Amino acid sequence: MPPNVYLDTCVWIAYIRGEEDQKYDAAEKIMLDVKHGKMRIIMTDLVLLEILNVLRKIEGRNFKILSNMLNDQERTRYVNQKSSSKFREFVDEITKVPFIHFKKVSGINLQDGILSPSLEFMWKYPGNVRLKRFCRVCKTRKPVPFFSEYKGLGPVDLMHILLAVHLGCEYFITFDRDFRALSREPYFAKIIKIKIL
Prior knowledge:
Elements: E1 4-7, H1 9-17, H2 24-35, E2 40-43, H3 45-60, H4 63-66, H5 72-94, E3 100-102, H6 110-124, E4 128-132, E5 147-151, H7 155-166, E6 171-174, H8 180-183, H9 186-189, E7 193-196
Parallel strand pairs: 1-2, 1-6, 2-3, 6-7
Antiparallel strand pairs: 4-5
Helix pairs in contact: 1-2, 1-3, 3-5, 6-7
């Protein structure tokens, strides 16, 4: 029986975006492994919610197209249509893959099993702030730092990994390097393997 695997949202986003995402090749390889039955993916509503949200944000950054529209209502309609279309295509595709299983989150005490531990881990692993010379959004590069950025695990990151544990996943696969801290966390080390690609 293939191992149960929880894919972080960033892996799905890379797969959906295709060649325009620098991590697409790794995401595509994972999907080929899934389609060949080498792993069994556990999918939750939390992943789907975050995918739709991220797709909206990506489409909302398309300034070149959006700036040519007449008003915010037209821009909003465009973003919602584009992101919803990509989301529906994705869901249609993955529902046909036999090794992707949709799990309803039940039998978990949300407060004690997910929310309280997430808060504890956010306190324990606060992340860091760095001065930056390059902006990934606007692609501006300067010789000296011109803005600062907080980087660390967020509440949804922690909810994903805790759900993966509660759903009996053996692996949690992500591209997010912020999970390095949790890969050494005793709570997770005994239960689930965190793979950062």
